[in-house]
User: Fold RarD protein from Parvularcula bermudensis.
Amino acid sequence: MSGPSSLRTGLLAGTLAYTLWGFLPFYFIVLRGISPIEIFTDRILFAVPFGLLVILARSQWGEVVKGLRSPKVVLWLLASALAIAGNWILYIVAVQEGRVFEVSLGYYINPLVYVLVGVVVMGERLRRLQILAVLLAGIGVTILTVYGGRFPLFGLILAVTFTFYGYSRKRVAIGAMPGLFIETLLLSPLALGLLIWLVASTDTGLEAGLSGDFGLLTLLMLAGPITVTPLLFFAIAARRLTLSTIGFLQFIGPTLAFGIGLLDGEPFTPAYQICFAFIWLGVALFIGDALQHRAQRPSPVPRAVAASLSTDP
Assistant:
């Protein structure tokens, strides 16, 4: 599709997708006191039926069946499912422990991690601004670790797991929604096993979700739509927008998460201030390099950069 109407639709859908992802920490803050594992299992189990409704509404069931019949697709989606499962549980734990700044940091540096993967795995060469952007991010993390006395483990693992997730998804040709549906389907046995363990345990807090509190139960059930809906908007945007436009929109998420961290009362220490200053400068250089590279053409966009801008979050 092309034209002004398609572009407006893509921009609206992309903005909605990254805005919803940006507000995601607020959802997990509201659910503080509930076991992160319980929230994680709800996110998977409620995403399956909601995802199925979306698949049927978009007439994508044939793509799901085709994917399930391919051992290669299933194996790569299993790898991506395990990566995103680790990402999800760590994300929930980080927010519930009041480390939203690390979540924001992780997704700010995620595109830079993709660039490094392009060098190590795909043999790509970094341009000067890309090198400087990566160095600035590294300096920021080092300052936070040494000066602030806090190594941003959660943030870095979030960036690495999400990068591996994106790399795995790029290894197979399957749409955003069908791929997510198969991933949640593959994770369902794990989620069910954890749910059984939670039910059998007396100190996990599962009873909080089943205590008759309708409001709390509704919030937990929303984990499915909250997981699927942003990806649906992203899929719409990805068909209508250029990679560079999507790349600029992706910074909406960590920016909103950063604001939520401030509202949540997380201490914005001098070490964090300096760290984010370096991160933001690195991001600005990354965007500037993308604009410059886009203007120059016809040199192709490096595969790792393209993946960082079009991965299904």
